[in-house]
C-alpha cells in the first residue's frame, strides 16, 4: 500500500523536506556519445526520452554539456515552484532540440544532406529565427564532442556569399574538384575544414582581394571589371551580403592558408557601428577557427568621407541604438590585448560626431583604384 500524506509528514521534519519528497522522480539523460556511430547515439537519446515520458510517465531532465562548467538543463514537463513561469521556455527549447535531433538522425540514416535554411523552413513556427537553428546545431555538436558539426551531422550552411575572380579558383574537397570560373559572379561553393583552394595564375604575379559589405557595391565593381578587364589588375571580389555567413569566412580562410598569390587583403564596409562589427567578424571572430586575419579594414571611414572634396556626402544621424552598439563594440575592442587603433578612432568619431554614412557614396576609384 502506498504512503499517505500523514506518512510523508511524519518522515519529513521541515516543510522544505516535505516539498522535495512529493516531487516526482525525474530521469536524467546525459547528452553525450553513447555509441561510436552518431546516429546510434541520437537514437539512444530519443529512445530514453520517449520511454520515460510515454511508458513511465516520468519527467526527464536532459543535461547538455557546453564549454562552460555548468551544463544546459532541459526539464520536461516542468513541475514544482515557479514551474508555470519556466514551462513555456523549457518546453519550446526541448521541442527544438528533439526536433533537430530527429531530423539529423533521418539525414544520417538516409545519407542525405540538408542546409540550415532547409531546417528552418521545415518548421518556421517552432524555430522562429534562422539563428535559433544555427545556435542549437552548434550546441548539439559541442555536447557530442564533434569537431565539426557541419561535416558530422549532415547539416551544411546555406550558400549566401558571392565571389567574382579574374583567375580560376579550384576547390578540392574529399577528392572532388569544384571550379570558380573567371569573370563570372558565383555563389561561394560548399566546402569543409579540410578543403584546399588553389588559384590558377593569371597575367599578373600577384592578386588583390576585396571584401565588400554591400551587394550593390559588389555588383557595380564586378560590372566595371567585366567590361574593362584589361584596365584592372587581377583581383578577387567577395561579398557576404552584410554579416558574413560561415561559408564566406571559411572560403577566405582557406585562401589565406592555401595560397601566397594574394598580396593585398582589404575589406570595406559602411561608416557605421554595424560596418565596424562586420569587419571584425571577418578578421577576429573568436567563435570560429576560420577567421581571416590578413584582411585589413580600409574603410569606408568618416575621415575619408570628410576629406573627399570632389563629391558631396549625405551623412545620416546616429540613432540611440547606433550609439549603444558603437559603445559596446568600443568597450570590447579597448579591453582586448591588442586593440586596433583604427577601429577605436573610427568608433570614437562616430559617437562624438553622431554621424554615419553608407559605403555607396564613395566612387569606384576608392575600391579599384585609378590608372
From TrEMBL:
Domain of life of the native organism: Eukaryota
Domain Topoisomerase 6 subunit A/Spo11 TOPRIM, first and last residues per copy: 209-362
Coiled coil stretches, renumbered: none
Biological process according to GO: meiotic DNA double-strand break formation; meiotic DNA double-strand break processing; reciprocal meiotic recombination; synaptonemal complex assembly
Enzyme class name: isomerase
Keywords attached to this entry: DNA-binding, Isomerase, Magnesium, Metal-binding, Topoisomerase
Catalytic activity: ATP-dependent breakage, passage and rejoining of double-stranded DNA
Residues at the active site: 121 (o-(5'-phospho-dna)-tyrosine intermediate)
GO-annotated molecular function: ATP binding; chromatin binding; DNA end binding; DNA topoisomerase type II (double strand cut, ATP-hydrolyzing) activity; metal ion binding
Domain Spo11/DNA topoisomerase VI subunit A N-terminal: 93-155
Protein name: DNA topoisomerase (ATP-hydrolyzing)
Amino acid at each position: 500500500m502506498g504512503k499517505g500524506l500523514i506518512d510523508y509528514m511524519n518522515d519529513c521534519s521541515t516543510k522544505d523536506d516535505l516539498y522535495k519528497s512529493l516531487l516526482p522522480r525525474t530521469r536524467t539523460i546525459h547528452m553525450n556519445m553513447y555509441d561510436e556511430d552518431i546516429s546510434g547515439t541520437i537514437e539512444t537519446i530519443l529512445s530514453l526520452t520517449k520511454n520515460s515520458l510515454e511508458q513511465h510517465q516520468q519527467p526527464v531532465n536532459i543535461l547538455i554539456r557546453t564549454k562552460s562548467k555548468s551544463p544546459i538543463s532541459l526539464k520536461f514537463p516542468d513541475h514544482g515552484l515557479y514551474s508555470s513561469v519556466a514551462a513555456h521556455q523549457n518546453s519550446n527549447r526541448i521541442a527544438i532540440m528533439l526536433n533537430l535531433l530527429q531530423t539529423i538522425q533521418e539525414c544520417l540514416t538516409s545519407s542525405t544532406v540538408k542546409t540550415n535554411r532547409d531546417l528552418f523552413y521545415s518548421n518556421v513556427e517552432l524555430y522562429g529565427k534562422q539563428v535559433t537553428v544555427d545556435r542549437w546545431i552548434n550546441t548539439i555538436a559541442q555536447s557530442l564532442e564533434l569537431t565539426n558539426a557541419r561535416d558530422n551531422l549532415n547539416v551544411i550552411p546555406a550558400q549566401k556569399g558571392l565571389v567574382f575572380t579574374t583567375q580560376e579558383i579550384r576547390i578540392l574537397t574529399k577528392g572532388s574538384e569544384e571550379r570558380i570560373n573567371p569573370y563570372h559572379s558565383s555563389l561561394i561553393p560548399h566546402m569543409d575544414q579540410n578543403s584546399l583552394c588553389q588559384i590558377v595564375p593569371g597575367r599578373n604575379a600577384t592578386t588583390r582581394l576585396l571584401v565588400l559589405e554591400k551587394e550593390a557595391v559588389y555588383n557595380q565593381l564586378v560590372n566595371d571589371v567585366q567590361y574593362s578587364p584589361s584596365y584592372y589588375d587581377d583581383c578577387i571580389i567577395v561579398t557576404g551580403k552584410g554579416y558574413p555567413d560561415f561559408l564566406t569566412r571559411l572560403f577566405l580562410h582557406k585562401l589565406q592558408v592555401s595560397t601566397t598569390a594574394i598580396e593585398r587583403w582589404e575589406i570595406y564596409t559602411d561608416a557605421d557601428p554595424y560596418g565596424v562589427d562586420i569587419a571584425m567578424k571577418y578578421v577576429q571572430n573568436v567563435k570560429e577557427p576560420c577567421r581571416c586575419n590578413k584582411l585589413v579594414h580600409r574603410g569606408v571611414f568618416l575621415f575619408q568621407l570628410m576629406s573627399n572634396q570632389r563629391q558631396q556626402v549625405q551623412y545620416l544621424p546616429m540613432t540611440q541604438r547606433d550609439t549603444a552598439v558603437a559603445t559596446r563594440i568600443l568597450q570590447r575592442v579597448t579591453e582586448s590585448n591588442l586593440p586596433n587603433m583604427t577601429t577605436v578612432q573610427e568608433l570614437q568619431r562616430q559617437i562624438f560626431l553622431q554621424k554615419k554614412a553608407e559605403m555607396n557614396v564613395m566612387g569606384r576609384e576608392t575600391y579599384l583604384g585609378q590608372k
